[in-house]
Every structure is written in structure tokens, then in C-alpha cells.
Amino acid sequence: MLQKKKEREQKQNRRFRIHERIEIGHCLFLLREFLLSSLSVSESSKLSCRQMHVQASLEAKTWLFPGMGNSDARRKPFFIGKAIMVASVVALCIIFVKQPSFFKGTSQFSHHETGVTHVLVTGGAGYIGSHAALRLLKDSYRVTIVDNLSRGNLGAVKVLQELFPEPGRLQFIYADLGDGKAVSYSQNAFDAVMHFAAVAYVGESTLEPLRYYHNITSNTLTVLEAMAAHGVKTLIYSSTCATYGEPEKMPITEATPQAPINPYGKAKKMAEDIILDFSRRSGMAVMILRYFNVIGSDPKGRLGEAPRPELREHGRISGACFDAALGIIPGLKVRGTDYKTVDGTCIRDYIDVTDLVDAHVKALAKARPKTVGIYNVGTGKGRSVKEFVEACKKATGVQIKVEYLDRRPGDYAEVYSDPSKINRELNWTAQYTDLQQSLQIAWRWQKLHRNGYGGPRLSLIS
Ligand SMILES: NC(=O)c1ccc[n+]([C@@H]2O[C@H](COP(=O)([O-])OP(=O)(O)OC[C@H]3O[C@@H](n4cnc5c(N)ncnc54)[C@H](O)[C@@H]3O)[C@@H](O)[C@H]2O)c1
Fold it and tell me: Which domain of life is it from (predicted)?
């Protein structure tokens, strides 16, 4: 009995110490941030207190606070003055963050406002989500991004924040979607949800199926439950052509039977089914968009695609092409040259991210209660892998080395969409259909951001 009590006390003490260490880590990190010229004070001060706290907590997990031992005696009085100032700021931050009322009910985000649509963008720190948030902000929507930064980039959120610093435009919630409470539905007046957040690599899904079902299917269920509980009635859902599996007939229409062949496609199809079942009774306005292969980036060069280096092995062809052009990998490996296609390589439908987010905005504008819209988002034109590689060489100006290998099991020869339904019903047509141009735009960003959005790549929760 006594022994158990002692163990419990020891455990509690240990927990307290860990917590304390993280808090001290926050303070040290903020202090460090304050002193380092690489992240100037003005830049840091643009972040809200909570965001600083969030950023600190992220960084504190991986930083060993280099430089803390490099004190310079000549700078000591200056240093002490700054340290006192920073310690006060940090203490204030911690006090504010710990106030239960701090995030409640006072901001523009917590009230519905006539003429303003407040969109919750899940996965808004990721590739497509950040581009969608940019477009929504440009079109005067109010945006809340929720992301657990397992794969996204805080740098992308910072770009958006710098572009739209006005109060009531953009807020960032660092949370896992699986935790409905952390997303603070009750403290935010959302009008619609664009649900992008997901793990999204076919290969990885075959290795870690449970993770995919949890992250995609189960989290979508949590999102729906929270929407229902808080009266959010519009959902735009990111689905994928992977839900179709290997259809015999091309092009793929929305009526093509869905028979996914990998956990990624299956998890997305299950999420679609849950959404459809729920929408039947709830009167929700639902748009399900099934994307084909997404490429490109913001034509003005503000955002780009920056997946984590550890995901390279599962990566997409555009990422591999840029990595090869940058010399990060020795060359490109094209798998399969004996498919029954024009040049023997696989055919895919590449949709530019700018067109894709345009489809989302149009879908949101046309979403109506008790109505479900399901749309393929593709160009309707298939391009072979060889064609893609040639476009990539021209776009980057690099003679990328290409190795032709045997087929990869599970790859299908041809996949391309019939986008006539979305053309007709949402008045949407792909504009960026020049492969080389899309790749050129993306390449410009890649060249300027060799380290993605910069800073250490964090590896957190997933
Ligand atoms: N990129 C493509 O070619 C493609 C094709 C078809 C469909 N999609 C779909 O589009 C969506 C976005 O894909 P992307 O390419 O931008 O991926 P991405 O990895 O760049 O972005 C996904 C974002 O979701 C976040 N996230 C993941 N799990 C989360 C969780 N549990 N809680 C909070 N945030 C979480 C990640 O941190 C990341 O920022 C996904 O749903 C994907 O299935 C993408």
C-alpha cells in the first residue's frame, strides 16, 4: 500500500518536472529567439502571444538551445537587461495562455458576422490547404487553420499571416483533429469546413494502414460530430481518385464504381460514405471533390510544396523531379516502360493547385443545404510519365538523369478524369493545363526555398 503510494507520488513528481522543463524550454527558446538576429524582434512580435507559445513549445522539443553557453562578457549588462525584459514577456505570455478565458468569446472569430463567411481549413499548413487558405483570404473569407504540423509547415502559416495581418482575418490553431475539444468549435463561429487534413501517401498507407484509417476515416467522423454539435452546416471534403481503384474504362466519371485498392483510397472512400450517410439526415451542404494528381504552386511565389524529407521515399513525381534537379537525389527512377500507352509509361492527370483551390471556392459558393455534390477535379487530359519528365527538364533547365526500371506492383497504366460534370455544374475549368508552365512556377519556389519554409524540420505527432 505504502509502496504504491510512494510510486504514485514519484510518478506525479516526474510528470511535474517534465512539464516544468517544457515551460522552462519555452522561456529559454523565447529568450533565444529574442536575442538571435536571424529571427528579428519585429518578426517575432508579429506573432500573437499564443502563437509564440505554440512555436516555442514545438521548437522546445527539438532544440538544445545552442549558443546559451556563448556568453560575451562585454555584452553582459545589455544581455541582463534584455533577459529581464524577455523573462517578463514570457511570464506574461504564460499567464495569458493559462487564463481559461483568454481565447473565449471576445474575438471576431467567435461571432457570426453578416456578409463574412468563416471557413475552418483543416490541414491549412499543408501544401493544398495553405494554397486554399491563401485564396480564401484573398477573396475576403475569414479563415481559421487547424493543423497539428505533423506534415505541414508553420512557415506557410506565417506567410499567410504576414499577407493578411488585419484582425479577424486569419487565426491558427495548433491541434490534432482527433481532439475535437482542442479545435475549439465551441469558441469559434465557423460557417463552413474545408477538410484537407490527412496523411496522403499511397505507399505509406500500405505499410501503416491503421494510421491511415485513424487519421482519415476516424478524424473525419470527429470533424462531422463536432460540426453537428455546433451547427456548422457546410462541408467541402478533399477526396481522391484513389477511391476509384483500377477502373477498366477511361476517363473516370463520378459514376465510375469506387473500388479502392489501397488503405489510403479505402480510408477516403469510408470517410466519403460516412459523410454521405450523415448528410442524408442532417440537411448538410456537402461537396466532395475527388482530386487527381496535384502539382504546381502559387504563381506569385508566396507558397510552395514542402513535404518532409523523410517522406521522400513515398513522394510524388513532381517532388522527385525537383529533388533530382536540385541534386538532392541522383536522378529520377521511372518504373514501367511496357504499359499499353503511347510511350509505354503510365498516364496520369495532373491538376494545378491553383485550379484545384479555385474548384474549392466555386464548390463552397454553390454548396446548398440538403444537397451533395460529388466532382472529379482533373484536367481531363492524361500525360505520360515520359512527357512529365521532359516537361520537368525544360522547366528546371537541368538535364535530369533518368533511370528506367521494371514496373512497380500495384501501379495502373492509365488514370485520367472526365471533368465535364464540374465544368457544367460549377462552371469550373482547369486554366493551368500547360505542364511545363506549372512546373516552372513550382520550380521558381523550390529554387528559392531549398530548405522548404526554412528552420528545423520538426517531427511531431502524426
Ligand atoms: N497532393 C495530392 O496530389 C492529393 C491528391 C488527392 C487528394 N489529396 C488530398 O488533399 C488533402 C491535402 O493533401 P496535401 O497534399 O496538401 O497534404 P499535406 O501533407 O501537404 O497536408 C496535410 C496537412 O494536414 C495536417 N494533418 C494531418 N493529420 C492531421 C491531424 N490529425 N490533425 C491536424 N492536422 C493534420 C498535416 O500536418 C498537413 O499540414 C489530403 O486530404 C489528401 O488526401 C491530395
Answer: Eukaryota
CA–CA dist 248, 262 (Å, integer)? 17
Q: Using omega within 30 degrees of 0 as the cis cutoff, is the peptide bond preceding 251 cis?
A: yes
The C-alpha cell at 291 is: 482530386
> Catalytic residue numbers?
264
Q: Which residue has the cell 506573432?
A: 47
- In the chain, the N- to C-terminal Cα span, in Å, equals 39
Atom index in ligand 1 nearest the CA of residue 305 equals: 20
- Taking the centre of ligand 1 as the mean of its atom positions, its distance from the CA of residue 344, in whole angstroms, is 31
Q: Hey, what's the torsion of the CAs at 203, 206, 212, 213, to 10 degrees?
A: 150
Angle between helices 263-282 and 219-229 (to 10 degrees): 20
The pLDDT tens digits for 139-173 are 999 999 999 999 999 999 999 999 999 999 999 99
Q: Which residues line ligand 1 (CB under 6 A)?
A: 123, 125-129, 147-152, 176-178, 196-200, 215, 219, 238, 240, 291, 293-294
In sequence order, the β-bridge partners of residue 250 are none
**Ligand 1 centroid to residue 367 C-alpha, Å:** 22
